[in-house]
# Entry
Amino acid sequence: MKKDFPILSTVLPNGKKIIYLDNAATTQKPLSVIERISNFYKFQNANVARSSHYLGEQTTIAYNGARKTVADFINASEDEIIFTSGTTESINMIAYGWGDANISEGDEIVVMTSEHHSDFVPWQQLAIRKKGKFKVTPLNADGTINMNEFKKSVTSKTKIVACAKMTNSFGVINPVEEIGKITHDKGAVFVVDGAQSVPSMPTDVKEMDADFLSFSGHKMLAPMGIGVLYAKKSIIKELEPFLTGGGMIDEVKTEFTTFACAPDRYEAGTPNVEGAIGLASAIEYLEEIGMANVLEHEREILEYAYSKLAGVERVILYGPKNFEKRGGILSFNIKGIHPHDVAAVLNSNGVAIRSGHHCAQPILRFLNIDFMATARASFYIYNDKSDIDVLADAIEEAKRRF
Amino acid sequence: MDDLSDLYAEVIMDHQRHPRNFGKLENFDREVQMTNSSCGDQISLQVKFENEKIKDLKFSGMGCAISMASASVMTEVMKGLSIEEARRFSDEFLEMVKAGKIPSDDLKDAKVFGGVYKYPMRVKCATLAWYALQKAIE
# Structure
């Protein structure tokens, strides 16, 4: 597997081989994706859905094909798939394009304390703009959602519930099917952040009954700058275009403009075609492995890492002990060492991890975590147990130094 | 060759283990709170002035080794300096860490933070206390 990813043979200036354990921040790209994008520019490049020459047709076919690949991957249909720049833009598109027209004073928006800032700040800002009520559901000590509190917080005034299927801080897999049912029973719209889950496990939008689902390409072997907003057919009509301009119109008069049908009306301007094609290529690579196998592999690495680090003096591991509730993310701290210093020592051993607040300050503050920061190792398809052995040795070195 | 030594020089490790001027002043003229939001480092700095000079200063807070050691070294360098000198020395420190400029010997122990320049992610850690000082002497 590692041979498909040239970057994983990187050797640091100090001679250490790179051990890439920062996959929740972004994943590396296989040669097949890199070559697909390179071939796009070598043999296909033109603008989409505008130029009716040979290259324009080739590009349009590839772009539409990418949309079909994405739709099939999450069990949706093509006209429910909007290409965006990433999860952040997707969620803002909902907050502005649906939220502004449908939230009024006193309406409630419910999110979880464990949301990434990209699934937290847009909702908080929407509530402030529309004088709505922003309700943040408390967590249990292991970072899972306190479901009793959640049930109480959803009322007949709730218009939106937003929740990640997998959290990026601790890798907790949330019970979105149950959350979606409670949400819909109260007549609210259910928005799922799939940025962490879509790369790591099978996704079926019908099964989770999401009204909206967002995810990013770069966390699943595709380039940065491409993402997806899935909007269920029954709600997409209520979504107003957030950006207007070229490519999203039907007819432009001096007095008014009529817009194209979905999904074109949500993709103003020249789209990120190389990104969409790269994403489709990444999905093909992942499907070859099988998404259930991806999750199984991540859990195998997680369990191995957990077994090596649990009980190690000064090491604190976060998240639930039940691995069924987790993906391949292990957040930890070493008592008395700031995670940035941990990351520096690990880096000198070639081990790449993330340290800091992981764009998830609310959960760290809620759980009163030392330094308001953690070290986070996150695993993907190309990691193996020997990577964890290097990680564990480097943690011992950090303890010796500090 | 230990490639961490240009980041965690012995002086830095010593200040991290035994921070100088850590705590609160009973009497002070200025108090500045600052955070480095990308890391969560926090510092509170109190300064007592006398005759246009920094008579005393103390810091408290939490953060990584670089941010805490940098604050500790800053208080040692600054104690007794005139406000004018403090401004010049802190500018010099910031230029050293942010732009890799060679500092004068006036910076004393603070010169060991020169290596941070090669670690752009840690620049904010090293500069936090010095920005707090600049705010306190505005």
Summary: Chain A touches chain B at residues 13-14, 337-341, 344-345, 348, 356-357, 364, 371-373, 401-402 (CB under 8 Å). Chain A has a mean pLDDT of 97. Residues 73 and 267 of chain A are 20 Å apart (CA to CA). The first strand of chain A starts at residue 19 and ends at 20.
